[in-house]
Amino acid sequence: MIPLDRKINDLRGRRFGRLAVPADAEPDLSDGHARWPCLCDCTGRALVRGSKLVAGLIVSCGCYRADPAVRQAARLRTPAKRRREIAGMGGLARRGPQ
After folding, report:
1. What 3-state DSSP class applies to 86?
2. Which of 45, 53, 56, 64 is deepest in the core (most CB within 10 A)?
3. Which segments in the chain show pLDDT lower than 70?
4. How far does the chain reach from its first CA to its final CA, in angstroms?
């Protein structure tokens, strides 16, 4: 195990959403940022910046967004009126009366 610089948070053995940083993981410091190898609950793998993990901005390898239950919950949170507005636009945002 390589000793880490004191500016780098040691994320070994911690969990962030569906991602887990293995206890024996070593960060990739090649670009000046600590990128940690993570294992996802869906058996996927991801190399994620430590600051994004700690801030909660990245919680999976990408499987979370594709999860049908998550997509349905997002639909339910969007009010019906807004869904109709979006559908009526045909995918294009309108800018005032035309």
Report:
1. helix
2. 53
3. 1-6, 89-98
4. 64
Query: DSSP characters for 10-37?
Result: --TT-EETTEE--TT---B-TTSS-EEE
Q: How far apart are CA 32 and CA 55, in angstroms?
A: 18
What is each CA distance from 51 to 19, 31, 67, 83, in whole angstroms? 14, 14, 24, 34
Return d(Cα 66, Cα 44) in angstroms, integer. Answer: 13
Say how far apart CA 16 and CA 59 lie, in whole Å.
Answer: 6
Encoding tokens for residue 76? Answer: 């339910």
* pTM: predicted TM-score of the whole model, two decimal places: 0.63
